[in-house]
Amino acid sequence: MIIGENIHKSFGDLEVLKGVDLHVKPQEVVVLVGVSGSGKSTLLRCFNFLEMINSGKITIDGHTIDPKKENLSKIRAEVGMVFQHFNLFPHKTVLENVIEAPITVKKMKKEEAKKLGMNLLRKVGLEDKADVYPSKLSGGQKQRVAIARSLAMEPKVMLFDEPTSALDPELVGEVLQVMKQLAEEGMTMVVVTHEMKFAKEVADRVIMIDQGTIIESADPKTFFENPQSERTKQFIQLVE
Amino acid sequence: MLELFSTVYEVFMRTYPGFLRATVVTLQLTAIGVVLGTVIGLVFALMKISGSKILQGIANIYITVIRGTPLIVQIMFLYFGIVEIYTMDNFWAGAIALGVHNGAYIAEIFRGAIQGVDPGQREASMSLGMNRKQTMQRIVFPQALRRSIPPLGNQFIITLKDSSLVYIIGVGEIFSLANREAAQSFQPFESFLVVALYYLVLVMIFTYLLRWYENKLDVDKA
Ligand SMILES: Nc1ncnc2c1ncn2[C@@H]1O[C@H](COP(=O)(O)OP(=O)(O)O)[C@@H](O)[C@H]1O
Ligand SMILES: [Mg+2]
C-alpha cells in the first residue's frame, strides 16, 4: 500500500534517514519504535510529503510519486496523518474541523459532509461534542476528533506520530481503543508510539529505527521475545 | 487651586461646541487612517510573506522608510509633494498621510500574526489535502486576524493621538483648535489642559470598547 525504497533525507549537514526501506502491505499495521531523534517523525512526514526526500522512491497504492510533477495536495489527501499535538483548528467547531477538508478539497455538499462528519464523530464516540470548540475538549477527545478529521478524507493509509504522547495517562486508553478499532476494520496504519502494549496487541509488524536506519523488523512476538540486534534489546528493556 | 479649576471650567464651557465638532474631525481622521492603513498593511504583509524576493524587497523598503522617519515629516512631505501635483483638501492629505504611516505598522502586525500561527496548523491542513491557498484562506488567515485584533486596537489608539500632528497643515481637529484657542485667549495652559482631557476621555472610551470586544471574542471561542 505504501512503499518506501532507499529513502534518504538530510536537514543541511544532518543526515536523518540513511536509506530506509519500508514496505507496508494493504491492511497491515506497522508500529515504528526507536529512541527520540532516530528519525521516526521524519519518515512519516516524508510519506506524507510534508518533507521532501533527497533520494529514494515512494509508492502509494501502486503509484510511484514524483514530487516535482505531482499534485502533492492530492496525494496528501490519500495519506491521513495524526499528530502528537492534535493540531485541531481552534477557530472551528468539532464538526467544522471534520468537514473542512471534504468541503474545501472534495467540494462535497455541506449537508452530505455533515452527515459524514456526524457518522465519524459517532465512530470515535464524540457526536455529542459536534458543536463545541476544541478548547473545550480533553486531550483524548481532541485526538479522537483529529482521527475523525483525517478519516473524513477516506485516506488509503493512516500515519500516527506519537498520538498519545501528549496525553495524561488516564486518557491514553480511549485513543488507543479508537486506533485498535480502525485496525480491526482493515485500515492500513503506520504508528509511531511508545505504547508497547498496543504494539503487542495490534501490530502486524514492529520496526525499530535507529539513527536513520531500520535495524529490526519482525512480528510483535519475535520482536519482543527474540530481538536480533543489541540496540533493540536495550530499547525493549528501557521501555518495559 | 480652586481658581485654576474655575478658569479651566470656564474655558471648557466656552469651547466645547467647537471641540465637539473638532472631535468628529479627529475621529474621522483616525478612522480613515486606520482603515487605509489596514488595507495598505494587508497588501504589504502579503508581499512580505509572498516568498518573492522582489515583493519582499519593496515591502521592506516601505516599512523601513516609514518607520524610520517622523510622522510629521511624512505629513509635510505628502502635503507639499502631493497637493502640488494634485489638488486635494488638507483633510484628505492628512488622512492619507496617517493611512500611509499606519500601513507600515499594521503590515508588521499582520505579518507577525500570520507567522505567529502555530506551524502545526499549516501542517494539519496540508496533510488533509488542502493546498497552500486553501490553507492560508481557511486556516491561517482567520486565526491570524484574531491574533491581530489586540495590536490593531492598540494601533487605533496610537493613531487617535497621532492625528494631532496634522494640525501642522491646518486641519481643524481638536489639537489645532486648542492651539488656536491658546493663542487667542491668552490661556494656553488651560486650553492644553482641556484638550488633554478630550484625548484622555476618547482613549479611555476606546480602550474600554476594545477590551470588551476582545473579551467577547474569547468567550465566544473558549
Ligand atoms: N525541520 C528540521 N530541520 C532540522 N533538523 C530536523 C528537522 N526535523 C527533524 N530534525 C532533526 O532530525 C532528527 C530526527 O528527528 P525526528 O524525525 O523528529 O526524530 P524522532 O521522531 O524519531 O524523535 C533530529 O536530530 C532532529 O533534530
Ligand atoms: Mg518524533
UniProtKB/TrEMBL annotation, chain A:
InterPro entries (UniProt xref): AAA+_ATPase, ABC_ATPase_HisP-typ, ABC_transporter-like_ATP-bd, ABC_transporter-like_CS, MetN_ABC_transporter-like, P-loop_NTPase
Q: Which Pfam families match?
A: ABC_tran
Q: Which organism encodes this protein?
A: Planococcus salinarum
Q: Which SUPFAM superfamilies match?
A: P-loop containing nucleoside triphosphate hydrolases
Protein keywords: ATP-binding, Nucleotide-binding, Transport
Give the GO molecular function terms: ATP binding
Instruction: Please identify the protein, giving its name as recorded.
Output: Polar amino acid ABC transporter ATP-binding protein
Q: Which residues form the ABC transporter domain?
A: 2-236
Automatic annotation (TrEMBL), chain B:
Any coiled-coil regions, as ranges: none
- Pfam families linked: BPD_transp_1 (PF00528)
Where, subcellularly, is it found?
Answer: Cell membrane
Annotated membrane topology is:
Multi-pass membrane protein
Q: Where are the transmembrane segments?
A: 20-47, 59-82, 192-213
Keyword Transport: yes or no?
A: yes
Which superkingdom is the protein from? Bacteria
All copies of the ABC transmembrane type-1 domain together span 23-210
* Keywords recorded for this protein, A-Z: Cell membrane, Membrane, Transmembrane, Transmembrane helix, Transport
UniProt xrefs under InterPro entries: AA_ABC_transptr_permease_3TM, ArtM/GltK/GlnP/TcyL/YhdX-like, MetI-like, MetI-like_sf
Q: Belongs to which family?
A: Belongs to the binding-protein-dependent transport system permease family.
Which protein are we looking at?
Answer: Cystine transporter permease
Q: Which organism is it from?
A: Planococcus salinarum
